[in-house]
Design brief:
Radius of gyration: 34 Å
Helix content: 25-40%
Mean pLDDT: 80
Number of helices: 17
Largest sheet: 7 strands, mixed
Low-confidence stretches: 79-91, 278-300, 682-699
Shape: elongated
Strand content: 25-35%
Oligomer: single chain
Number of strands: 27
Distance between the termini: 108 Å
Length: 731
Amino acid sequence: MRGTDLEDALHHTTGAARHRLNAVSAAVYLLDERSDDLRLAMADGSPPSLFTLPWRIGLDAPAASARAVVSGETAVLIDPDPADPSQEHALPYPYIALSAPVAAGGRRFGALTLLRLENGGDCTPADRAELENQADRLAEALAGLVKDGVRVEAGPMPMLVPQGDATDTSVYASGWGVRGVPGSAGTSMMYPLRRLSEMLNRASTMDDIVQAAQYCIMAPLRAQALVLVSAGEGRLWVLGHTGASSGMVRALHGARVDDRTPAAEAFRGRPLFVSGDRSPRTGSLSPDESRAELYLPLTGDRQFVDLPLVGGGRVVGVCCLQFSVPRDFPPEERALLGMMAGSLGAAVDRVELSARQRAMSECLQRFLLPSRLPDLPRLVTTARYRPAGVTSKLGGDWYDVTTLPGDRAVLVVGDVEGHAMESTAVMGQVRTAVASYASEGHRPGAVIERTGRLLAELGTDLTVTCCVVSLDTLDGTAEVALAGHLAPLVRRPDGSIGILDAPANLPLGMPTTNTCQGSEHRLEPGSVLMLYTNGLVDWAAADPHARLQALLGSGDRGAAPDLEQLADLVVADDSAPQQRRDDAVVLLARYAGAADQEEPRVGGLHIQRRDLLGVRAARAFVHDQLGSWGLQEMSEALELIVSEMVTNALIHAGSDVDVRLRAFADHLRLEVRDSDSNPPIPSPLSLTEEENAEAEHGRGLLIVEALADTWNSSPNGQGKTVSLTLPIPAR
């Protein structure tokens, strides 16, 4: 055979080989001598099978094509592209690969490879002879082309020739394509696969992946439910689910990996198709294995499909599908599921890695922030840190409060440019420097100047903006100095909002010979200060500054706002988390004034981790503190509350616990701090099985919700603070 050109020669060979050997697809791989690997030049066959063929194959890969070229002999392999190269029994696609070397005149051109169905029969000597004959004829043609000066090499992309057989109704019966139109079913099957790839490329969360799987896998296959699971610490954990999946979630979430269940078996690289009569449709188990031991008890005529999801060369999860009635899965449909599982695995691996990196980033960032803010007689403070919503990189925003002799306090917020490890490292150094200079008693302008000189000596190219406010809590004098930062806002006792203006100055890290200029303001008792970073306003479209002023002024005009609720409101106000391009910090401080009331009543208790008497000590602390303040009538309820809160903190956080109690004119505030940043979840309020696994068990939070006026949980530098308020009865 002599083709008129390379394309004709390849097309003639693949078409003839596919028909003569009753193959699903036939392909020619040509050897790229520059990269020493095989590249797919042309493939002829059904569309789903065509897309299971690897584009490139290394000569050391466990593939039939590579073995044929290296050995010079015909090779047979059950799987042309194993999900796990170390386990050749894995079957992501229902094909057997047969490959013969294409060589002539001492030159290795490549391999002629066929894909046949698993149940298409063994490769007989006659099959081998016919395959080798087709390969030899192709080699002769290619040698002739080389002699004529034609370059024999694969193009930048393979040439695909889709073929369909109008007499094969197995795929059409599943609802794909137009009955009787050759190639329609296979081509239609590729649409959800390509759509799935597009959606997964944009997926940034597990919810995005589940939505893509629902649209492109569950709906086209008419599945009743879909569950994605991962494995960790010897157990299965649900990553996401959709459809009528509550029963599957209950059975899978927390199940042991070594249980003989379909999902656990799929983690070993074995896709399973299980019918309601407990018989597997397909699988790769050895004949001597007891199949009845593999499956969960099933009821009705349901069908289960469990697909291993491979990412980064390992099984990262399993996609579990449930169908309301048993159904057959034709080979082409199983091939489609195999390709979809590969795309899902890569996406799950990427999103899970991003989530781990994000968790580590937030942990490091929060660890560099203050674990708690100091207690001040006439100044109540609270702060929030909110990470960026579209990046797992580190941030450089921080806040701090430093107490000084003479009833003075220094409030600081700052922002290091960038989102890299260097940004976080510089933030830690600058925060320490600002706190140190402030503790020495320097005025805000001097603090900024000295920190700027220190930053220049660190040798970093990053710039830092910050706002420093020194407040005298006796007379309300506030001195403000800025280093290229946003000026703080103030809510006055009458509810009006103002700005504590000050010269902008240059950010830290920029060379300057000018002295840092500040400004002085007088705060009225009852005023609320808000220091913040620009991450709070970058997302707004119209007038972000006006929006922040509106947030600070929310509530009844003239009424003192609850700082905790106000802080939560400010950091939560945005259109969507995906729009958060930067991390953000807000620091709120309410100035009570020297003549506002008698000396504020504050008390605290520290409980060490695993202290068996810690709960008793917390109850005694509350009882004694309220007795000294003349609030004995509130002791019983608050003792019960603190007992449950401290118990939950000791059990679930496993860390030291700090208890703080503060009495205001009309209410009490209780705070319990621990090192676990995850918010507590009341178990009866959990909406899903996954949340229930993380819930606080027992009656603790139910009692808190029943007795407290308001309660919330907020993360801080090294954990969280669960706080609540109780009204003080009128006397």
